[in-house]
Specification:
Blueprint lengths: L22 E5 L2 E4 L4 E4 L13 H11 L11 H15 L5 E7 L2 H16 L4 E4 L8 H5 L29 E4 L23 H5 L4 E4 L10 H14 L2 E5 L23 E4 L11 E6 H7 L14 H16 L2 H20 L5 E7 L2 E6 L19 H11 L2 E2 L7 E4 L7 H19 L4
Parallel strand pairs: 3-13, 5-6, 5-7, 7-8, 8-9
Antiparallel strand pairs: 1-2, 2-3, 4-10, 9-10, 11-12, 12-14
């Protein structure tokens, strides 16, 4: 008699639960579902910046699969090449970017970056933003302040207790959600007077402040970035830019920090760094940070850092981004999409706000307060409004991902063209019309 086992326990689900959507294949901007339907991908995986199974990335990974594997304690030429391609293509001639540390994922990148900041500054305190997310392990988890991504155990009923593991690796101070990160702001807005009014006090004596550009449905402005960077420098704190989601052109710039004038001390990367072909992350260090390390050896290693498939995918993805002009494509399509999306959401009662730039757009829906960003642990006992929008869009041929209990987001591959993006927006429009009927 065959033994019955639970088997795979999927991410974000209980033992025995299975995801509603089943994807069989992906090519370019299309997904084939287990039902046989082919739909346009509006963001099934934010790491697939060059589309699914890009032939140049696939070819590079296939070659690497027959290559030698040695741990990161040994020299391996393709690792050096991946670092050179990352610096030379993604960062270009910008002289501040100097050193690269490869990691197995963005969570490890965040953890190591914060650890390094503590060592270099000889301080413990870390600063992050409310509703942020930077990773699931170590210091990265300590500075992740969004309840949905906390790693908690939650029952599918809002009255049941949430079981959260204790924290305590570091003392973390919280910056409030900035007004400028919640949508269009007045030109006279000054982040020092509103968003960052207590920043100097919060940063005093800290090792680092880490910021991202999308988590918690918050997209801080360029002004916020530059003024936070100034405050960090005054405090002697390192500024870490988490570009896990936004790197390599997502906002119509090579990196989100390029919207402003300041440059980070450290950048953490993941997701799109391999085009979705393999797990990997990286830390990019400024020249000043590298010089601060001096001749000291950083005694940290990990078996799969710079694994052959990962570094091959990094190099191939960087070349595809450059050769196919994907940053420029995101910039031009982003301007077109903004006009379409702002006109569209004005017609829908269920949409409270639209936040975005380039090819990253978040739609905040009118939901109960307990499901709002910053409050929700994922413990509703019925489908949320974002899940309804996702399913309705899927029925109309577009995969629009659920971002949280309050938001859906549009984050397609950067290879998408205007025709396909327009069809995705049409499907989203129709799905939002259905959702309007659920808003009192």
């Amino acid at each position: 008699m065959k033994t019955e086992r639970t088997g795979l326990i999927p991410s974000m689900l209980a033992p025995g639960e299975r995801q509603r959507d089943r994807v069989l294949h992906g090519r370019g901007v299309h997904l084939t579902l287990s039902t046989g339907e082919v739909v346009l991908d509006g963001g099934s995986l934010s790491s697939c910046i060059v589309g699914h199974c890009h032939p140049k990335v696939v070819e590079a990974v296939q070659r690497a699969a027959s290559d030698v594997y040695v741990s990161d304690g040994n020299g391996y030429g393709p690792r050096d090449q991946a670092a050179e391609d990352l610096l030379g293509i993604a960062f270009g001639d910008d002289p501040w970017a100097d050193g690269v540390i490869l990691t197995v994922a963005s969570s490890e990148a965040g953890d190591l970056a914060l650890m390094l900041a503590q060592m270099l500054t000889e301080r413990e305190v870390l600063v992050s933003r409310e509703r942020s997310y930077h990773g699931a392990v170590g210091f990265a988890r300590e500075v992740s302040l969004h309840p949905l991504w906390s790693g908690a155990l939650v029952a599918p009923m809002e009255s049941a207790p949430v079981l959260n593991s204790p924290r305590g690796l570091a003392h973390v101070r919280q910056l409030p959600v900035p007004d400028c990160g919640l949508g269009v702001i007045d030109p006279s807005h000054d982040c020092y007077d509103t968003c960052l009014v207590d920043a100097d006090k919060l940063l005093e004596g800290s090792a680092a402040v880490i910021m991202d550009y999308s988590q918690g449905a918050v997209m801080p402005s360029a002004q916020y970035q530059d003024k936070l960077a100034d405050a960090a420098r005054r405090a002697g704190s390192l500024w870490i830019a988490d570009e896990t989601v936004t790197a390599f052109g997502r906002l119509g710039h090579p990196f989100a920090f390029h919207r402003g004038e300041s440059r980070p001390d450290i950048v953490t990367l993941g997701k799109g760094i391999t085009g979705g072909a393999a797990p990997a992350g990286a830390i990019v260090l400024s020249r000043q940070v590298v010089e601060s390390m001096g001749d000291r050896r950083w005694k940290t290693s990990s078996t799969f850092r710079g694994q052959p498939l990962a570094v091959a995918a990094i190099s191939a993805t960087m070349h595809v981004v450059a050769e196919e002009g994907l940053v420029a494509n995101a910039a031009s399509l982003g301007k077109w999409a903004e006009s379409q999306l702002r006109a569209m959401v004005s017609r829908h009662e269920c949409v409270k706000a639209v936040i975005g730039e380039g090819l990253l757009w978040l739609f905040e829906l009118a939901v109960p307060e307990q499901q709002a960003e910053g409050n929700w642990y994922g413990n509703a006992d019925s489908d949320t409004l974002p899940e309804l929008v996702h399913q309705e869009a899927l029925r109309r041929g577009a995969f629009i991902p659920v971002f949280s209990g309050q938001c859906v987001w549009l984050i397609p591959p950067l290879i998408i063209d205007q025709e396909h993006l327009g069809l995705i927006i049409e499907a989203l429009d129709a799905a939002l019309s259905v959702a309007d009927g659920y808003v009192a």
